[in-house]
Amino acid sequence: MVIRIYDTMARQELELKTLKDNRVNMFVCGPTVYDLCHIGHARTYIAYDIIARYLRARDYSVFFLMNITDVDDKIIKRAKETGEDPLVLSGRMTKEFYKDLNVLKIQSVNLFAKASEHIPEIIAQVKQLIERDYAYQVDGDVFFSISKFPEYGRLSHQKPDELKKHRIDPDPRKRNPGDFALWKAHKPGELSWNSPWGMGRPGWHIEDTAITGFYFGPRYDIHGGAVELVFPHHEAEIAQAESASGERPMVNYWVHTGILRIKGEKMAKSLKNFISIREAVEKYPTEALRFYFASSHYRSQIDFDEENIRRAAETIESLYIIMNRIKSLAKTAPKNAEINKEIQSTLEMHKKEFHNAMEDDFNTPIAISSLIAFAHDMDRLINEKTAPEDLEKALATFAEFGAVLGIFEAKEQKTEEDVVPNLMNLILEVREELRKKGDWASADRIRERLKQMGILVEDSPKGAHWKKSPIS
What we know:
The protein is α/β, with parallel strands linked by helices. It is built from 14 helices and 16 strands.
């Protein structure tokens, strides 16, 4: 077994070689919690959830660490707008983030680390950088000096002169325009902590390296995040961590997810063009969203497409139908039936395809193709004469694939009680569209037909509702 990972630094796939036996220390940049997370975040966090799931499926011991940026300019600005204490706002939004992850079945993170709970570690790392002459103090602010770190830009593959065209915070007190803040002096109305440089708060970049240094030490295996964080955030992390510890490389594999676009633009809170995770899961099943995102490679740029999510939901439904058919056959399978060699060879072929895809930089689109082909082949080959061992292996393979992708985890298969409400809500949506178009006759006809079937539809200012009643 050889797992290959595309490393942003090397710009190529590299074989996974861990620092400690089968242990993988993986850090992923979490959200800045000033608002609800959007489905662009969902795409990123689902990708790393699948990566962690697969590594564990291949017997790696994964410690998955994610930070929570709960001290930041955006949080302070939003808190002023809402009249809240910044930490109260960020605490409230952190709880909402946890709820979103739970709904998305992202449960692979071992530890969430809040920046506000690691201020001593942050101060200690800033002190290290000053003592090593990589940072300097100006009026209570502390800046990292990029001229002291000649390799600044190696992750984004840019020279220091080229980095000047990127976003920087102008400040005439800086020795170099590209120098970035490690510690920010207190301003009236802002949250702050005491430090050797006076009251203040950490800069964004130092939060992550102080956290990873505390839990992992100066070096670890995988650092993940969205591709837009390569510069300046991840570039700054490398400069800080390696300068503070004197050890390199800080990370063996830099992994980045592609951008999710909507109507041709990057989905972002700042652009106000985002769809929250909360809105998405109200409209689409969680498994459909996971399947939709996994249908594209995690490094690819994709455009949000509701039609493709609907297709993903239909595909999931068809896979459940095949699985449930096999479960039904397993209940009455002839105990003395011979094992079918074709079923066994087909099953092993698809398992090999699935794992080959996942070992090739976690290529979920190919893995999903293997899953679908496997399901269709099992549906073709399995019948009422199939041996119990074949049926059990088929179901175990569905479970194995599903455990990696985060699907097929419903405890019970769907029943009439599950299907009827969803079907009725769909019928009422169609009826409401007819009413909006002024087609009252068709809308009334639907209501009368439902009444004949024992279902009463009641219209109200808040919308239509239904309930069962005796058939008249």
